[in-house]
């Protein structure tokens, strides 16, 4: 599921992730703002979390889902809000990456053939040149600025945003045919740059595009267990 924000550079990419996975994308316009800013969260009128509640409520009615999986790693603020919404809806909140050591986690993602493209930067040590690069190429740099400035290697503090353009679960590879780098803020210490997609296409992956998501997941698990090679493209 995804909230809609016209200024959010990742949104067009999310649509292609949905198609590459072969799953339906649910969206809802974000009408609220972060009214409640304490670490914990209780139902608050006009808060953006209530947009998440409404979206998941609609999805639950249509699909009979029983759980929500989030990518929270170190943000208690984020995790608490997902858990609160899930509790109200009678859903299980799953956070499999919670409190993982970030450099190890990112290396594991790379090792399992996730192609992670950096599409936005907003941190000291990062700039225009890093936009559009692969996380696999930038991991040594991430490690270096982590040691110097306490940089979150997985971008958990908003240091960067990324888009997975390929992984073993995709039936298609997301190909960025053309894009431009846009400066959102000229801050001297931490300029904000993002990638604006102009043309994006899906490239078929032999065999994988004919499988459903469950079949690709089973193939991936077999590969991780050593029974088969992990196929990405």
Would you give an account of this structure?
This protein is of the alpha/beta class and 233 residues long. The chain is built from 6 helices and 8 strands. The protein has helices at residues 11-21, 49-63, 76-89, 102-111, 135-149, 213-224; strands at 2-4, 27-29, 67-69, 92-94, 115-122, 160-166, 172-185, 192-204. The chain has a 4-stranded antiparallel beta sheet with strand order 6-5-8-7. It has a two-stranded parallel sheet with strand order 1-2. The chain has a two-stranded parallel sheet with strand order 3-4. Strand 7 and strand 8 (192-204) form a beta hairpin. Helix 2 (49-63) crosses helix 3 and helix 4 runs antiparallel to helix 5. The radius of gyration is 18 Å and the shape is globular. It starts with a strand and ends in a 9-residue tail after the last helix. The model is unreliable at 1-8 (pLDDT under 50).
């Amino acid at each position: 599921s995804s909230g809609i924000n016209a200024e959010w550079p990742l949104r067009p990419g999310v649509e292609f992730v949905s198609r590459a996975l072969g799953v339906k994308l649910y969206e809802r316009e974000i009408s609220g703002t972060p009214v409640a800013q304490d670490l914990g969260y209780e139902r608050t009128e006009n808060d953006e979390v209530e947009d998440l509640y409404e979206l998941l409520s609609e999805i639950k009615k249509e699909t009979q889902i029983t759980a929500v999986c989030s990518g929270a790693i170190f943000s208690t603020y984020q995790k608490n809000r997902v858990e609160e919404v899930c509790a109200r809806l009678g859903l299980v909140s799953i956070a499999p990456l919670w409190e993982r050591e970030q450099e190890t986690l990112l290396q594991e993602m790379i090792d399992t053939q996730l192609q992670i493209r950096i599409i936005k930067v907003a941190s000291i040590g990062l700039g225009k040149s890093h936009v559009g690069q692969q996380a696999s190429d930038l991991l040594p740099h991430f490690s270096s600025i982590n040691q110097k400035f306490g940089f979150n290697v997985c971008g958990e503090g908003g240091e960067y945003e990324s888009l997975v353009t390929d992984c073993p679960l995709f039936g298609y590879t997301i190909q960025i045919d053309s894009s431009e780098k846009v400066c959102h803020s000229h801050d001297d210490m931490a300029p904000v740059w993002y990638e604006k997609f102009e043309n994006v296409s899906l490239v078929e992956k032999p065999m994988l595009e004919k499988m459903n998501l469950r079949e690709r997941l089973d193939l991936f698990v077999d590969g991780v267990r050593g029974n088969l090679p992990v196929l990405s493209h």
